[in-house]
Specification:
Helix content is about 40%, strand content about 15%. Helix 1 packs across helix 6 and helix 3 packs antiparallel against helix 6. The termini are far apart. It has a single domain, classed as Rossmann fold (3-Layer(aba) Sandwich), CATH 3.40.50. It is built from seven helices and eight strands. It has about 240 residues and is of the alpha/beta class. The radius of gyration is 16 Å and the shape is globular. Helix 1 links the parallel strand 2 and strand 3.
């Protein structure tokens, strides 16, 4: 019942030279609580995937409507493209990804059996080989909700895909994050920056500076100039990071 209102738009990468995929193309899904979360946490990794010919979908839990408008604003956003939807589409175009939106409400995420079932159906239809989601110990409840929904869907699918958790705005959002895996984003960081700055309504001067400190520190840890870090689920298949 939640699938009817979903929208997806294929975005073409125009700012990075595509490279041939060394292996068969993967379906990669990055789930996030809001437009912007996947870009900030995984933008460099997404660009690495798409440059290698893999298919990436950024799946947002909501459309980033004003949470102060409550259910009225959420219902209106489901029937029209909000400014944050346009920002997400532009970010996807830059990264070479596809944008999709679930029908949950910004700031009012629901995690129950009905939403578990609907989200599992949605994720199953995308046939992911690799899934990234937000860390379950985040300060924002929408981040925790998408993490829980994604984990339940992954379990229901028999844990066939690789599953990784990502970090955003450490200290403000993500807490207690101890990475197991790293991706070198030195070459793709400029694309990540463009994608994050596409979310012009979300104070990118402030939040991207914060996220840059995170990627610089993760780079120091991993021996790169810039890196994105992940926690791989202990029962996840390894070896599918770009």
């Amino acid at each position: 019942m939640f699938l009817a209102g979903l929208a997806g738009t294929l975005c073409v990468l125009r700012r990075a030279k595509a490279e041939p995929a060394a292996n068969p193309a993967l379906n990669v899904v990055v789930t996030g609580g809001h437009p912007g979360d996947p870009e900030y946490g995984c933008g460099g990794t997404v660009a690495r995937y798409t440059r290698r010919g893999h298919r990436v979908t950024l799946l947002y839990l909501n459309r980033g409507e004003d949470p102060h408008q409550g259910k009225t604003g959420c219902a209106a956003a489901a029937n029209r493209e909000t400014p944050r939807v346009h920002e997400a589409m532009e970010a996807c175009r830059i990264l070479g990804a596809r944008a999709m939106f679930d029908r949950q409400c910004n700031g009012d995420a629901i995690v129950d059996n009905a939403h578990y079932a609907a989200f599992t159906e949605l994720l199953t239809n995308l046939k992911p080989d690799v899934i990234f989601s937000q860390w379950p110990i985040d300060n924002h409840p929408d981040h925790r909700a998408i993490s829980t929904l994604t984990l339940e869907a992954w379990n229901s699918q028999g844990r066939k895909a690789a599953l990784y958790f990502y970090e955003v705005s450490d200290g403000l959002d993500t807490l207690m994050f101890a990475p197991t895996d790293y991706v070198d984003i030195t070459e793709t960081e400029p694309l990540k920056r463009q994608a994050c700055y596409a979310h012009a309504s979300q104070q990118p001067d402030y939040f991207y500076a914060l996220q840059s400190h995170v990627s610089a520190f993760r780079g120091i840890e991993a021996g790169y100039r810039q890196a994105e870090a992940y926690v791989r689920h202990v029962r996840s298949r390894p070896g599918l990071l770009p």
